[in-house]
Amino acid sequence: xxxxxxxxxxxxxxxxxxxxxxxxxxxxxxxxxxxxxxxxxxxxxxxxxxxxxxxxxxxxxxxxxxxxxxx
Length: 71
Fold this sequence. Notes:
Layout: H1 7-32, H2 35-61
Helix pairs in contact: 1-2
C-alpha cells in the first residue's frame, strides 16, 4: 500500500482494527473468558488482511500497464 501511495487507506484500516479489537475483546471475553481475547485478535488479523487485500486489488485495477494511475 505504501508503494501504491495509499497510506491513508492504511490509516483507516488501522482505525477499524482498533475499534474492532476493543469490541471483539469485550464480546468474546464474555463468552470464552481470557481465551476470547486471543480469538478476538485472530479475527481482527483476518479482517485486516481481507481489507488490505481488497484495497490492493482495487488500487491495482486503477493502474495501467506502465503503473500510472487511472484514478
